[in-house]
Amino acid sequence: MGTYGREELKNQDLEDLVLVLSPLVGSMDSQVLKWALDLGIVDIIHWHGQPMTLSQLSPSLSLPCTNHENLRRLMRYLVHMRLLSTQGDDLYNLTSASKFLIVEDSKSLVPFLRLIQYTDTDKWHSLGSLLEAKGSDGEDVWSYFAKNAEHSKLFNEAMACEARLVTPALIDGCRDIFRGIKSLVDVGGGTGTASRGIAKAFPHIKCSVLDLPHVVETIQDYPDVERVPGDMFSFIPYNDAVMMMKILHDWDDEDSVKILKRCKEAIPKEGGKVIIVDIVLDIEDGQEITRSRYAFDVIMMLSTGGGKERTEKE
Ligand SMILES: C[S@@+](CC[C@H](N)C(=O)[O-])C[C@H]1O[C@@H](n2cnc3c(N)ncnc32)[C@H](O)[C@@H]1O
């Protein structure tokens, strides 16, 4: 401890208190967001098409509400989170962040939020402990999904909604990496959101999706993207480029090297490309976004057994 003047000590204490209390506040943020989704608050205001009062909102909620005062306090919290706004005392509207919470919006993150919220349930915890045993009973998260269609669907939808946000950024922001490519396989491409986007943006690139059979069989027919059921540890089809979006973060270093070796065999020695789309931990662009990168690392730790987010060097 250094020595502080009276005012400094107070300020320092206040800052330290915020550090200690923010996890508690964060857990309330998460709870209130879950309630908002469960009640359908954002969707109701969206479909109403204009700001709503509490008495207009309340009959449309997914649960009967007789306690308007508690609902008002819930709404006040959502306004403070800037997920909603107020106009006057009792008129609630959407904010620019609300679009991510509208089920039908093309930028909706609802399936992803649902998946993360799902990790709080006992079921997911038992899946988590099942994964801890990776190596002893041999079952990993992907084998679990192969046997649990409902969870697999939830997971695939969550991945797809993220891919709907990331793919346009990849296409617009990294256009050059697609130059010179005539064929591309999206390894672990899930239900094909990214490859459909790439095929549409670059019609001259022949795109395919390689994923596990139980995932590939759920992909809707899309003429410009070929579906390849398979195991990336065994074989990756030959293409000018291999893309892996959020794949290596699922695996430990040893498995990642195995996958990268398969990638190397799958591309031309001259001019072949491996395009890796993953979180990079050590980019300093703001406290909040850095925190979410570390949060994803913890999610990987809990849900995959060996997966992790990496620094650029790693
Ligand atoms: C985190 S998801 C990423 C999905 C997609 N790339 C995206 O960004 O939305 C990982 C994907 O890897 C697939 N996967 C896991 N093990 C695999 C394997 N051995 N071979 C092929 N795909 C695999 C999963 O089925 C899942 O679709």
The CATH architecture of the largest domain can be given as 3-Layer(aba) Sandwich
CATH class of the largest domain: Alpha Beta
The N- and C-terminal alpha carbons lie at a distance of 35 Å
Count of extended strands:
7
Helices and strands, in order, run as HHHHEEHHHHEHEHEEHEH
Total helical elements: 12
Strand order of the largest sheet: 5-4-3-6-7
CATH topology of the largest domain: Rossmann fold
Question: What ligand molecules are bound, each kind once?
Answer: S-adenosylmethionine
Q: What is the mean predicted local confidence, pLDDT?
A: 89
Beta-strand residue percentage? 5-15%
What's the structural domain tally? 2
Which consecutive residue ranges, at least 5 long each, have pLDDT under 50? none
Shape: globular
Largest sheet: 5 strands, parallel
CATH homologous superfamily descriptor of the largest domain: Vaccinia Virus protein VP39
Helix/strand class: alpha/beta
Fraction in helix = 40-55%
Question: Compute the gyration radius: what is it?
Answer: 23 Å
